Amino acid sequence: MLEIYGRPNSLNVRKVLWLCEEIGLPYQRSDWGRDHKPTTDPEFMQLSIFGVVPVVVDDGFVLRESNAILRYLCSRHGRTDLYPADLKARAVIEQWMDYANTDMGTGMRPVFQGKVLGMKPHDLPEMVAWGAADWNKQMGRVDAYLQKAGPYLAGPSFTLADIPAGLMIHRWMVLDFDKPKLPALRAYYERLGEREGFRKHGCNGMP
Ligand SMILES: N[C@@H](CCC(=O)N[C@@H](CS)C(=O)NCC(=O)O)C(=O)O
User: Fold this and answer.
1) Residue 126, CA atoms < 13 Å, CB-side half-sphere
2) How far away, in angstroms, is 7 Cα from ligand 1 center?
3) What residue spans in the chain does CATH classification 1.20.1050.10 cover?
4) Among 32, 45, 60, 202, which is least packed, fewest CB within 10 Å?
5) Is this structure's pTM higher than 0.90?
6) CATH topology of domain 2-76
7) Any atom of ligand 1 within 6 Å of the Cβ of 113
8) Which residue out of 37, 52, 170 has the highest number of ligand 1 atoms within 8 Å of its CB and is therefore the one to mutate?
9) Per residue in 27-55, pLDDT tens?
10) Which CATH architecture has domain 87-197?
């Protein structure tokens, strides 16, 4: 059975949990990371020296990096509906996955880790203000995109493109800071809420 190492309140772990729900894949999860067993523990270090969750073990095969794990699990379980074989369709999905892990989340860090969790150095007021402005700008761009495209990020159906970005959009929706009203983004967020996996591991009360 797939083993998932990582605390259930981590955005990156929740991506994997959500996908397992979509695939109907059973797993065993153990609590590692902030406020749980430390990733400096020798048991964890044996799997990964990179100090972050998630890490998965599948039949002895060890893999880290949440987005790489999502792609691996889809390919392993033949879910071409979520991660197609067609080169261009796949590239569009990867474009959204990369964007969610980079530009879409750069401003999130000072707002969430700084303002909400009080972690240094993200909590500097000018960093938080810059983060909020940048995060709002990125979400404005996704809203503008969704006004013309969709209903899902990579087109007509739900794919891997929607998991990393969907969780980032969820966090933006639920955190309390000055935000513009973005109706197309809101409609997309509500659409994701129709999915069991997102209700369990995305919009489940955690930011
Ligand atoms: N690029 C990595 C980032 C992983 C990451 O930053 N994970 C955070 C949780 S979301 C973490 O492990 N933080 C340290 C901790 O929880 O101890 C991925 O996508 O998997």
Assistant:
1) 0
2) 10
3) 87-197
4) 60
5) yes
6) Glutaredoxin (3.40.30)
7) no
8) 52
9) 999 999 999 999 999 999 999 999 999 99
10) Up-down Bundle (1.20)
